[in-house]
C-alpha cells in the first residue's frame, strides 16, 4: 500500500509540474516577448518539451517502476511533435536544428529496442520450440525491454493481425503437452459473418471510393485503407480461432479466443463453469463481462474475483464473467467440474 500511495503522489507531482511548464510555455508563445526573442525562446520551449518533461516522467514515474532511462526516448519524439504543432511559423526554422539532432537519437533507440527483442527471443528459443506460442514470446520480449506495456500490447496486436492473416496458413493448432483442447470455430457462424462483411465492404468500398474521389482524394484513400485493414483483421481473427483452441490443464485454462480475448485463467479464480442459453446482458453486466463478437455464447465462466482480459487493439478490461462459444460445451463443462 505504501508503494501505491507513493506512486500516486509521484504521478500527481508529475502532472502538476508538467502543467505549470506547459502553461508557462504557452503564455510565452502568445506574448510580445516571444516575437522579440523568437530564436532563443523557441530553443527554450523545445528544451522543456523534449528534455525537461521526459526527465520529469522518468524521475517521478519510470524510475519508481525500475525502468531504464532510455524508456523515455519515445516521449522525446512526442514532445518534439507537440512543439512543432504549437510554435508559430517564425520559429519553425529554429526547430530544423532540433529535428536533425533527434533523428539519430530515435534511430539509436529503435536499433537498441530491436537488439533487445532479438536477444530476448534468442535466449527463449529453446522454450519457444517446446512450450510457447510465438505471439506470446513476442509479448514477453517487448515487456522485458523498455517499451511501455500499453504500447507493447498495441504493437503485439498489430503484429498478430499480419501473422495470422499472412504467415500462419501452414501452422498447426497450438496445443501444449498435458492439456485438453476445445475448438470454438467449427460450429459457429463467425466464418460466414467474416465472408459476408468482407464482401459488403469490398463491393460498397469500391463505390464509396469512386464517389469520394470526386470530392477528396485523401479521404477516399483513407476510407479504402480502413476497409482493407478491417477485412484483414476479420480474416486474422478467424485464423487465430482455428489455431488457438481453449486449453485446459490441471492448474489453469488458456483462453485465446481469436484476437478478441486473451488470458491465462488460474483454477483458483474460477467459481463455476456452466452451460447457458444466452440472454442479452444489462449495461452494468456488460461492464464486468467479456463476450465474443456476433456469436451467442453457450458457456459462462463465473469468477471469484476480477481478472484482466486482453482484447482487440491491446485494450485490457477487468471482468468477473467470461462468456464463450465452444463446439463441445458439455465436455468442457464436465472437465472443468472434475478439476
UniProtKB/TrEMBL annotation:
The keyword Transmembrane helix applies. Keywords: Membrane, Transmembrane, Transmembrane helix. The chain crosses the membrane at residues 12-34, 40-62, 69-88, 100-118, 151-169, 189-212, 219-236. The keyword Ribosomal protein does not apply. It comes from the Bacteria. This is Beta-carotene 15,15'-monooxygenase. It comes from Paenibacillus selenitireducens.
